[in-house]
Write a structure and sequence with these properties.
By secondary structure, the chain is mostly beta strands. It contains one helix and eight strands. It has one helix spanning 2-21, and strands at residues 30-33, 39-45, 51-58, 88-96, 101-109, 114-121, 129-135, 143-150.
């Protein structure tokens, strides 16, 4: 009888812990400093329920000649004059409750002009570090980076 009560107590405790460590879909919303520390991305939830991210700050917003950095590597010629500052980097992420990750989105790399499939997650319930993995085809062959949460938008 004591073993049964102990088992039930442990089970209830574990269920409680699991609920505490579960991520909320909106935990990803906010400002993130990218892996190189050269830009800040604001992640937000759109009216369609999906998550997107725009560049809100650049360490070096100007080219060496003093002109504003533009998306000159974009494969679409018509978009090559768009400013990097304000550019949408993350598109159309959905939160997967079972996997505890944001998935089925894309990430754009303005340095190369390439767009990759992408998913994002937190490890060990640490919502201060966002793991971002971009890939082509299979996620095993992709590149993972870590972004650091910031409380507010950086000033240029």
């Amino acid at each position: 009888m004591k073993i049964k009560i102990l088992f039930i107590s442990v089970l209830i405790s574990l269920i409680g812990i699991c609920n505490v460590t579960a991520q909320n879909a909106t935990d990803v919303v906010g400002y993130w400093l990218t892996q190189d520390g050269d830009s800040q991305v604001k992640v937000f939830k759109a009216a369609n329920g999906k998550y997107y991210g725009n560049i809100k700050w650049l360490k070096e917003p100007l080219e060496e000649d003093g002109t504003v950095k533009i998306d000159d590597e974009n494969p679409n010629e018509k978009l090559r004059t768009k400013k990097i500052l304000g550019l949408q980097l993350l598109k159309s992420f959905k939160f997967n409750t079972k996997k505890q990750e944001w998935e089925k989105g894309t990430i754009y790399d303005p340095k190369t002009g390439k767009t990759y499939s992408c998913f994002m997650w937190f490890e060990k319930n640490d919502i201060t570090i966002l793991h971002v993995k971009g890939f082509i085809g299979f996620s095993l062959l992709g590149k993972e980076v870590e972004w650091i949460r910031e409380k507010e938008i950086r000033k240029s």
